[in-house]
Each structure stands twice: as structure tokens, then as C-alpha cells.
């Protein structure tokens, strides 16, 4: 009987750690709202066996940002690009957005773009971004047909670091800091020289 309490505490701690590592994952099915941006036409989604994010070529993605501008990853060639999948309901996503915005402003060799992987109505997303402004462009992508250029996020936030040639250099699952991104950029830049 005295061994029961001593088992409960380690088991409780293990469960808490697993929940924290899981990041933000939405259990409910997405609502049927029309996103501000659909990365793919209404055609059938590409087969999941060979997503472009694992291919050897540069990532191709062209979307309309929430401010109406064009977000084209090809326009960022020659710079490192941070592609951050996030959602309005994801607290770790919201916590890292100000730091990503500061990184985008501070480092001329690093561009940040946000992909709102969210079923929020387009006008509600624009209103949300007025309350949580960032310096980088954000486009909304369909949860039903996410962009084929990347694997669908297993959890949020999910962040891809693209090298200056537009290829995936690193993927971060869960919150990421500017320091982690800068370490990956600096290591990648040193390896290329």
C-alpha cells in the first residue's frame, strides 16, 4: 500500500512531460469555412508519399497574403526563409510570433513567412492579426488541402528553415526560438563556404 503513492508522482510527471512535448494539436475536425488563401486549386490533393519538402529541389509556393500581396517563396531566393505553420488557437504559436517578427526585422539574410493553418474565417484572421501584428507576411492555407510543398503539420507550431537555394535545411516541430534558427543558419552558412 505504501508503494502506490510513490508510483503516482513519477507517472503523473511523465504524463505532464508528454503533453508538453505534444505541442498544439487540434482534435476537432475543421469547420467548413472558406480560407483567405488556398494554396492548391480545388483539385485532389497530391499523394502523401512524396511531399516536396523532402525532395531535392527548391520549394515552390505562391500564395496571396492576408494583406493582398503575393507571397512567393521564389522571390526569397538568396536568403534563408523561415516558414512558420501556426494557428490562432495555438498558444505556443502566439508566444513565438513576436520573436519571429523581431528576427525578421533584425537579420537581413533571414525572411520569415507565416502560414495560418487554421479554419478561422478570413475576415476574422485579418482582425486577429490587427490585435497580434507581425512584421512578416502571413497567408492562410486550407486545413483540408494544405500546400503540397510541405508535409501537413503533425502539430503546431511547425517551422521549416529553407536555405538560400529554397531547399529545406531543417524542420522544427514545436516552438522554436530565434537563437535556434540563427544557429542552424550560421551552421548552414559555414558549411556552404
UniProtKB/TrEMBL annotation:
<keyword id="KW-0732">Signal</keyword>
<dbReference type="InterPro" id="IPR036249">
    <property type="entry name" value="Thioredoxin-like_sf"/>
</dbReference>
<dbReference type="GO" id="GO:0017004">
    <property type="term" value="P:cytochrome complex assembly"/>
</dbReference>
<protein>
    <submittedName>
        <fullName>TlpA family protein disulfide reductase</fullName>
    </submittedName>
</protein>
<dbReference type="GO" id="GO:0030313">
    <property type="term" value="C:cell envelope"/>
</dbReference>
<feature type="domain" description="Thioredoxin">
    <location>
        <begin position="38"/>
        <end position="190"/>
    </location>
</feature>
<dbReference type="GO" id="GO:0016491">
    <property type="term" value="F:oxidoreductase activity"/>
</dbReference>
<keyword id="KW-0201">Cytochrome c-type biogenesis</keyword>
<dbReference type="InterPro" id="IPR013740">
    <property type="entry name" value="Redoxin"/>
</dbReference>
<dbReference type="InterPro" id="IPR050553">
    <property type="entry name" value="Thioredoxin_ResA/DsbE_sf"/>
</dbReference>
<keyword id="KW-1015">Disulfide bond</keyword>
<feature type="signal peptide">
    <location>
        <begin position="1"/>
        <end position="27"/>
    </location>
</feature>
<dbReference type="InterPro" id="IPR013766">
    <property type="entry name" value="Thioredoxin_domain"/>
</dbReference>
<keyword id="KW-0676">Redox-active center</keyword>
<dbReference type="Pfam" id="PF08534">
    <property type="entry name" value="Redoxin"/>
</dbReference>
Amino acid at each position: 500500500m505504501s508503494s502506490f503513492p510513490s508510483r503516482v508522482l513519477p507517472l503523473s510527471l511523465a504524463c505532464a512531460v508528454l503533453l508538453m512535448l505534444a505541442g498544439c494539436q487540434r482534435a476537432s475536425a475543421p469547420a467548413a469555412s472558406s480560407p483567405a488563401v488556398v494554396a492548391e486549386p480545388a483539385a485532389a490533393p497530391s499523394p502523401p508519399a512524396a511531399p516536396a519538402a523532402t525532395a531535392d529541389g527548391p520549394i515552390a509556393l505562391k500564395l496571396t497574403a492576408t494583406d493582398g500581396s503575393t507571397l512567393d517563396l521564389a522571390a526569397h531566393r538568396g536568403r534563408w526563409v523561415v516558414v512558420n505553420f501556426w494557428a490562432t488557437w495555438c498558444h505556443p504559436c502566439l508566444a513565438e510570433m513576436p520573436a519571429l517578427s523581431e528576427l525578421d526585422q533584425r537579420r537581413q539574410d533571414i525572411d520569415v513567412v507565416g502560414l495560418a493553418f487554421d479554419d478561422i474565417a478570413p475576415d476574422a484572421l485579418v482582425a486577429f492579426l490587427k490585435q497580434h501584428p507581425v512584421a512578416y507576411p502571413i497567408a492562410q492555407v486550407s486545413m483540408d488541402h494544405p500546400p503540397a510543398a510541405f508535409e501537413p503539420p503533425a502539430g503546431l507550431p511547425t517551422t521549416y528553415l529553407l536555405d538560400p537555394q529554397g531547399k529545406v535545411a531543417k524542420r522544427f516541430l514545436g516552438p522554436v526560438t530565434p537563437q535556434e534558427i540563427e544557429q542552424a543558419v550560421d551552421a548552414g552558412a559555414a558549411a556552404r563556404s
